[in-house]
Amino acid sequence: MYNITMDFLLVFKFLITTLKRHKIDFALIGGFALQAAGITRTTRDVDLVILSKDVTKIKDIMLKAGYELIHESEDVLNFAGKKFELGRVDFLLAHRKYALVMLERAKEKSVLEGRFRIKVVRIEDLIGLKLQASVNDPKRLRQDMADIEQLIRNNYSKLDMSLVKEYFQLFEREQDLQDIVKEI
Questions:
Q1: What is the pLDDT of residues 93-149, one digit of tens each?
Q2: Residue 133 near residue 144 (C-beta atoms within 8 A)
């Protein structure tokens, strides 16, 4: 188990520098992507999307840097630092259509109060990931739907609503979207 007092500055610097040096394409997702979209929420890890072809490189990099692999599947790699300041880093492995396109259309943004520039998935894709997370883990439903509602509310005029609708249809949650839009 990792301690929640991870050193985010240390971890971001390590990840950005190392992944760029190894020519690994990556983008920020999760709590820090929410922050880049203007939603402040506490997070205890760093979440990135990478191409699945880079799994071997990532495992080698993370294990050599003092992380242990705590879970691996065809869709994710989860690492926990052996030292508390390394915290937890999760990688979504892009090998399906939606994740591949998310990574491709991610744009560089400032994170951690402008200290770093890193590719971040688009808000529409972040909504899609939040929907998927709430389906995969129903205990997350309330928080994820609150995040989704705030993302839509704060960015409604700028969103590609056809893409947002596509994500809601994909997870059979069209009524949820209708309810959110009706309130806006």
A1: 999 999 999 999 999 999 998 999 999 999 999 999 999 999 999 999 999 999 999
A2: yes
User: How is 6-27 classified by DSSP, letter by letter?
Assistant: --HHHHHHHHHHHHHHTT--EE
54 phi and psi angles, rounded to 5 deg: -95, 10
Among 103, 121, 139, where does a domain finish? 121
Q: Do 122 and 128 touch, CB atoms closer than 8 A? A: no
130 and 116 fall within a common domain? no
Pair type for strands 116-120 and 107-111 = antiparallel
The verdict on 109 and 143 lying in the same domain is no
Are 107 and 157 found together in one domain?
A: no
**Residues 115 and 126 placed together within one structural domain of the fold:** no
- 0.85 exceeded by the pTM? yes
Rounded to 10 degrees, the C-alpha dihedral 58/62/64/68 comes to -130
